[in-house]
Structure formats: structure tokens, C-alpha cells
Amino acid sequence: MSAVVDPREDDVESYIEFGKLKGMKITHVIDTHIQADHLSGGRTLAIRAGADYCLHRSADVTFDFTPLTDGQEIVLGNVTIKVLHTPGHTPESISLLVTDRTRGPEPWFLLTGDTLFVGAVGRPDLPGHVEASARELYCSLQSKILTLPGYIEIYPTHFSGSSCGKGMSGKPASTLAFEKRFNPFLSLPSEAEFVAAITRDLPPKPAELEMTLRRNQGRA
To answer: I need a surface site. Which of 40, 110, 147, 151 has the fewest CB within 10 A?
Structure first.
């Protein structure tokens, strides 16, 4: 059993072939949120693989999906994925805490989607309600992510070059301890200063944002 997280539309065949090569059955396809900067391959891959297509239960889409809830665990043999609802970048955003019991009983890494990047955090303006989303993001980071052990590795959906955040590093991975020490948005002393910092000088929205969102929501 295996899960694929945040697949792009143009990578579907690669996941199918990789699964065959490794003898792994894809049982779950998970999008950490409704993407705005690229077309998701989630539904297509799920259909091709005969897998569940999963989103947080609050996702505003027109099609059926397998709903995920905060604290839910998905068991894939020796691997357990714990769902953390981390709204802010979008209302339905989730992060996925992964434990591999062949390594030990403690969590190993966190797939942070567009909530936390290396050196940055997700932008709060894509779905609108910018300041409210920024406050949600602050709460998600403080209560759900930064309370985890510092040794946890983090793997975001994007790194430098993406328009989903500002100031992202070119590194594709980090640890929570490193981010707590060096990520400028995580060292701000108050919610008000965090909100001001992440809503200031946001990069332009992706040119095809509205159409991409509609496609990924099943509305186009």
C-alpha cells in the first residue's frame, strides 16, 4: 500500500510507472489543498490506480472525494499518516505527519503542503479574506506545527520559484528546529506582527489562478 501526495496533472504516468516498478499499490491520493498554481493530477491518478482521492472534509469542490478530518490516521502497512488540519493558505489546507514503525515509534517527517516552506510560509491571499486567513495561518503554525519535536523533517510542496509564498529557499527540505531558528516568519513575537509581515509586499498572483482553481474544484 502507498499514498501519493499533491501530484501534478503532467506527472500522473510517472506515478503509475513508479508504483509498478516498486510493486506498490497506490491506495490513497491526497491533495493537501486545492492548488491554485498548477493543475492537480489527484483525481485522474486516483481513478487510474483505483485509489481513494482524499481532501480535507471542508474542501469546496463539485465532485465526490474521501473526506479527511483533523487527527485522522491513515495506515499503510508500517507507515502511518496523521492528518493535521492547518488552514491559512487555504481553508482546507492540511499537513501530513508521517511515522514509519520500521524506523521507530516517533514521527519522522511532516508534509507541510503550502502551509510552511523552507524559509517562508504560505501566502494568505489566494482564496481572499487576507487578514483572516493570515490569522488562521498563525494559529495553525503555532498550535499544530511548531509544537512538534524539532527533529521532525519538513517537506513542503514548493521551494524557490513558486508564487505560493515569498522568500522561499531553494532547499526542498528542512527540519522544524532549523526553521524555528532561521525562518524569519516564525520568530515574530506576536500574531499582529506575523499578519503584517506576511500580508506586506505579496508577489503577484499566478496569471491563470482563477481558471486553475476552477479546474481543480471541478467547476471548469
So the answer is: 147
